[in-house]
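Comment thread on ticket #2218

A.B. wrote:
> Attaching the input chain for the structure job we discussed in standup.
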Amino acid sequence: MSRFSFLTLIMYTLIRRFLFLFDAEKVHYFTTNSLHLILKLPFVKVLFNKAFSINDKRLERTVFGVKFKNPVGLAAGFDKNATMFNDLNYLGFGFIEIGTVTSLGQPGNEKPRLFRLKKDKAILNRMGFNNEGVEPANERLKNRRNKQLIIGGNIGKNKVTSNEDAINDYVIAFEGLFDNVDYFVVNVSSPNTPNLRALQDKEPLLNILSRLQTINNRKNQPKPILLKIAPDLTDSQLDDIIEIISESKIAGVIATNTTISRENLITEKSKVENLGAGGVSGKPLTQRSTEVIRYLHQKSNGAFPIIGVGGIHSSNDAIEKLKAGASLIQLYTGFIYEGPGLIKKINKAILKEGIYGKN
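C.D. wrote:
> Ran it. Output below, let me know if you need it in another format.
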């Protein structure tokens, strides 16, 4: 670890301890705005690249036809409105997924709606797809400074849209973002939009994916479409997912979203109950998300790529998901708790282990 990286780690640990005293959602915007300002200072971009990035051809991965400079990405939910991707590029990510974006802007659920479970190194959220809509996001994506940065577009339905009409929301978001993202993710697995998870049932899900794939195939250069699934699916439901991917011919899966389970939490049960509904991410999800990755990979005989996400707080967590069958991985809660140095640690471990998920 370089001196600058070590100092950055110490500083992040101290700053995090202070920031964790305040409301999680307000701190999110404070820190991202601060990052934007810091990067305007002379030489900071150079220092950040040195501290957080590894430029090594051995880390490059071509998955579903897209070339990634390294396999460590940022999961959706952090850059909902595509306002931060240019700044986040300096932290060493191989790709960034924006969204979830809906056809029309919406405020999301009532605040407070984002909570830390510090004893569990977890986050509980019920954000509810708060975003400004597809048009503002698309305008910002046109200003991608680093054309080599891979950006995924995570799309969902509006809260007021019925499940019967949900397909129209996905089509609008897909068409709206098409020219300015490198791959798409269909999000039907968030627990924070009423009845959304019912769209994971075989018939409605196949209808949505098949419709998007039909539109996609009419394009001059089709984009990969992936499905993001919940960790709470049964083996039978995961079998359905494998069949749906085969029938719809989409590119792959992101496993997994947040969980509605409250099992095995260290945080006091009464505190968790008082916080209310929402999905849990972070360490409590580590094992289950890896199990889902392994099941899908083995049961399908590696028929499609998997992006592994859920509870990655260390290089060991990342390596386990790659060994289980993930081609790429994504961070969110681990990035918040462990800091940006985690990205470089994971990439170093991948080089050292020689571990790569199968395409």
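A.B. wrote:
> Thanks. Noting for the ticket: The chain has 13 helices and 15 strands.
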